Amino acid sequence: MDELDLFREDSEEQLQAMENALVEANENGVDEEIIGSIFRAMHTIKGSAGMFGFDNVVNFTHVAENLMSEVRNGKVELDSELIELFFGVKDHVEKLIELETASLPLDGEVLEKNYDLIDKLTKKLPENNLLNEIVSIEQEIKEKNDTNEDNTMWHLSIRLHEDFFESGMDILSIFSFLNSMGEVVINIPILNNIPKLEDISPTKAYIGFEIDFMTDVDKDMIEEAFEFILDDIELKVFRHNDEKAVKKFLENVEECVLKELNDNGIFEIETSVENKKEIPKIEEKKISTPSKNKKSTKNFSLRVESTKVDQLMNQISEMVIANAKVAQMAELKEDNELEEASETLTHLLEEIRNSVMSIRMVPVEDSFIKFKRIVTDTAKKLGKDIEFIITGGDTELDKTVIEKINDPLVHMLRNSIDHGIEMPPERIAKGKNPKGRIELKTYPDAGTIVIEIIDDGAGLDSEKLKQKAIDKGLIDSNANLTDKECFELIFHAGFSTASQVSDISGRGVGMDVVRRNIEELRGKIEIDSILGKGTKFTIRLPLTLAIIDGFLVQVGNSKFVIPLDMIQECIELTKDYKEKMKGNNFVNLRGEILPIFDVRKYFNEDKSYYERENIVVVRYANYYIGLLVDELFGEYHTVIKPLGEVFSNVAGISGGSILGSGEVALIFDIPALIDYYIKQQRS
Amino acid sequence: MKNRDYEDDLDLSLNQDGEQYLFFSCNNDFYAIDALRVVEIIEYQLYTKVPMMKRFVKGITNVRGDLIAVVDLKDFFGFGETIKDKKTSMIILNVKNSDNELKIAIIIDEVFEAKYLGEEDIKSAPEFGVKIDSKFIKNMCQYNGNYIPILDIDKLLNVKQLSKIELHQ
Questions:
Q1: Which of A646, A664, A669 to mutate: most B Cβ within 10 Å?
Q2: pTM here?
Q3: Tens-place pLDDT, residues A76-93
Q4: pLDDT tens for residues B34-83?
Q5: Architecture of domain A363-542
Q6: Which of A95, A335, B21, B53 could be disulfide-bonded to B57 (CB atoms 3.0-4.6 Å)?
Q7: B168 touches A: beta carbon within 8 Å
């Protein structure tokens, strides 16, 4: 990744954070954190744009940053007007960055916007800005001086006696005690008394410490800290601003210690001790030490290329395989210790693998929150009033899946606003709340993530859809379609229900593209709609593209992995069941008919070597099906590897997984398998 | 094939004319293939069966974390399945497929050597008379006094053909 890409990505992230903050401010009111993130966004972008010499960005963000800094100081209120203005700022900065990174000049419209925004921002600044600044600096200085009245810088000189260790005390615990009554600003260990290696006695202490200690307690209290070891150390305690004591100390101290002190800037040796110089130095130290009670920055993230995570995953898989070989050897040689060690390693590897897997998972909220603005903007443009609700934002999904589902969702939301929700008068006439409602709901369900877009708009008119499809020659005029099949028509390429193409929906990206995108992610989309009441789009996505929580089973000679979350239960296919089947391919499971899929037959496997046959009951959407297998091995986390193009036509297999022994297990694609099964039954 | 590692045969290639070929046997017949297409040669190892595939597409195997399709060459030529012994090997080949390349392993009886052949050693394939289908033969060459086929890897391992599904009953 080159620098410019990094800058682009970083700015994007900053602007996104800013937008999220603005949305948040609109909803729940303003707080410090929100102001902070807006300020930070402007500040960071200004800084990094400066490095690239993007003057337009720098100049603009500078104005915005100034205003935000006033907001932060409480001089300007972040009201709804200002929030609106900052939405504009965000968009404008985005545009500026786009132009600058492409080395394009600001053209008429953007330039106009630039001046307009700068003008508006400047007007928001308090008039006597400069004066305020001076006042605030003065205030700050005063505050600092105030705090200094209590705190005094002390100097502690400590030399441990050779027999110090016999006291049984730990000098470090004394230091931490010092920290509890003040702050150890500088602590220099004095090592010059340490003899040559051959002369060192491990029972003797040779070191000393020179400490700058800032505290509000008095000398007695400090000395008290050393109460128990006073006999075992040389201790000198004096104030930094006590010239006499400092002079005396400096005269008596060893040459090398003096140098050490000088290097660390504890005392200004040449100029001796001057109070004036001491004070700013103390301040500096104080600022540079982060105070503990301050809220730490919320979250920080690393930007890592996803291929690196994949690589890590591969390497771990390799290690698992290598370790399995070690375990095998240990068993063969009956080496218990080795076996145990390998077991520990197995455990650790499992943990590492889980951690790496979790790297890819992020809550959907981060990227869904920006839909709020899209909905508000679109609704405003169309003169509609819409309440937009996001539920289940903490559901985690693979980052790449989230990225790829983004565009289809935007498109669908726009569709819902444009075609779904009616205009307010129409809604009132229908006896609905004039304010439309769109819900974006995310939740995990049976090994998949479900995203629903529910609106309470006009609903889909199946007759109208059908007529349109007939007009367009997509279906036969006497085709007999269920409502659901009619709804599916909107996924046909070249099918658009809006009679007029607006700039909101219908930009050439139809629902067919939406469906294709979702299917590329191994997902599915369904529509439910009631005319006049509303529409619900249900998108089902796999949790992740690369990793699967599976259940390992054996059929004939081969091992297979079934996605764990789709499994409802495992039952034994007892003789009793078999007799009752009477050649049918279903069993009676607690009063329900469960169709059975014979994996061995499907995969042309050898006959079973096992006495016990098992049925794994799986569910996908509303289908239940029993897979007939031989042996059950249990849970298994694994990486999905594509089988490659040679096997692209095989139905019911989503990929392969490398087992600990190095052999490959095939992973069932349950939805495809169910589809295949249903088709087979029909034909 | 610019990215291949030539280090091993750098010296040789400076002094030699022509192309390098890998010689191996399958069903007691000798064959040659373009050595630059060979990724590596490994010992025969177990593979996992994949359903619905043609008889000679045996399944999939794990080569250091990569899943690679396995084709039994003897079975492909219609001489039945390779009988495994100590010398049975897998040659992993780079195969061109429309716009990309992928790796496919072929099971063969024994690998002999890699050797340079000059233009004079190579003859075009006869229309008929060789026991394997002539469309898989690129050229013929002399090896140990006999003419043997140089196989056309891309025709032999045509992904479109290999990936066709065959429903077993």
A1: A646
A2: 0.49
A3: 788 888 888 888 888 888
A4: 999 999 999 998 898 888 888 899 999 988 778 999 999 999 999 999 99
A5: 2-Layer Sandwich (3.30)
A6: B53
A7: yes
